[in-house]
Amino acid sequence: MNSRLVRKVYIYFVIIITLALVTVGVTGYWRSSNELEKQYEGLLTQIVDNVLHETDLFLKSYERATLSILISPVVKEALDLPFHATSGFYSSELAMKGVFQPVLINNPEISMTYIVGYNGFQATDFNAHIVPFNYKGFDEYVEQMKEDDTINGKLTIKDSGFLDGHLTLIRKLADRTSSTTFKGLMGLELKIGELNTLWKGIKLGNSGYFFIVNDRGKILYHPDSNRVGKQLDGMHFNTVEAKTNQVFELPGEPGRVFFSRKSDYSGWTLVASMSISEQRQPISDLRQTILIVGIITLFLATFLAYRFGQSIVRPVRLLENGMRQTAKGLWTRVPLTGSLDEMDQLIISYNTMVSRLEELVERVYETELRNQDNLMKRQQAEFQSLQLQINPHFLYNTLEIIICYAVIQKSSEIKDIVRSLSYMLRYSIRTDLEEITVANELKHILYFMSIMKYRNQREFEIDVRISTDYLLDSMVRLTLQPLVENVFKHAFPYGIEDTHTIIIDAWKEEADFYVVVQDNGCGIDAESLQQLNTRLLNSRQEKLVDSQPTFEGSIGLLNVHNRIQMVFGQQYGLSVQSEQGVGTKVTIHMPSSSAKKVIAV
């Protein structure tokens, strides 16, 4: 039997390994070759997109640089007023010193900047002294730019500048009152060598390269400097224009693939090229590696499968017999083989597991019962601790009032205060988990307000808008009074005014019951509000007794919030909305009475 098992293990292992190697090798080679081709195509696309993007950003930066000149009052006034020799000269000097210089200093690659008005105004400035400067040729160049209909209020790029080796960045200057009426031209002469520096860092493998042509086929950039400024072959240019955003081949360029994309901003076309052989070299290397590794792995795996089959049969049988006995409820230990290898370690682990399972099964029932009892006691203790965490200042202040009234005069006020305080104490010290009705909570608020009347020395009525249909709905004991007390302490810090209001309302949405305490007090600043709501969200991980409040009174909110969650669950509790100077709205979220009955059933 053992011999047959060894043979089966050996045969199965060989079949699985061979099938896995063939499947993984063929599938891996096919997928890898396809992915490599896609990656190279994506690489070309990404490089072209990145270069175009960087070039457009580079050119657009000069559009922003011209804004300081465009908004200059001196330039606008010079273009609007009739031109006179004296005033024109004065305005030119101001434009040179006060307007052009910051642009030229911040952009040393700009050789020349100028403004020419249709009223005869003209101002120029240079980053370096241009010798000689052909003023007559410049005037003729400007006249050509004025007649060029492609130039408008946006920055236009002319790949052949007035100065040799420069690009012209030019735009028409609009009238103050109309965007279609132009008053003059503004131009920059940019060294094309700056763009060459931007492009030279792009690499496309060992033999890859890219070049840029304008909309007329003129080569603006090429790694071969001898081709810069020359015209691209007509057939090649037509192919580049027709195959935009595609991978293609060019006539007369065997063994290479190209990809082109045209910039919507500059109108230039960037063409990237890579060698096909270089592109497919990793695929060829991958195929050869997979073949060699597959053959070596097959021989090695076959040998190991045989040895492995021989070594596992007997220990496996021993474990099998032991497990069969254990499955019947007989905790059976398996004897060691004596080889002291991993199989013996496995048998030792199995025997240890059996011993521990035998002990754990006996303990599990007792532990489960103890855990349930401890959990109930812990929740009960935590709930009582939270409910008894009452701010003592209210009691101290109330007792001070009683003493003052007792000393000064004998009156019915003392009886009202003591009776209200007595009710509140009896209501507060109950620590059971039972829920109370909305009506009882409102009655507790009534006694609280009776005491507050004497504390504030004035009447103050709370606007209770709760429908009578909700008065017998259940809620957690001592939740409304801490919220109302919090309003008096923090929402009205400078005393009660006639304009101050406190609204208590309630409504239901399907299985949810909401009670709201809203005031029109000073509100909470945004940072403190965010911290408070964060603490409410994470309150179960905090120790309320030792925690530091976000602001004075936040512990009372957290106390109420945690007691609600203990009774109804983690999905319920408090949420706070507030706007500084407008007021605060605290919402109590609980399940409705009908939802509780459904859960109980």
TrEMBL record:
The keyword NADP does not apply. It is a multi-pass membrane protein. The chain crosses the membrane at residues 9-30, 290-309. Residues 310-362 form the HAMP domain. InterPro entries: Bact_2-comp_sensor_kinase, HAMP_dom, HATPase_C_sf, HATPase_dom, His_kinase_dom, Sig_transdc_His_kin_internal. Signal peptide: none annotated. It catalyses: ATP + protein L-histidine = ADP + protein N-phospho-L-histidine. It comes from the Bacteria. Its EC number is 2.7.13.3. Residues 407-594 form the Histidine kinase domain. Keywords: ATP-binding, Cell membrane, Kinase, Membrane, Nucleotide-binding, Phosphoprotein, Transferase, Transmembrane, Transmembrane helix, Two-component regulatory system. It is an enzyme of class 2 (transferase). PROSITE patterns: HAMP (PS50885), HIS_KIN (PS50109). It is found in: Cell membrane. This is histidine kinase.
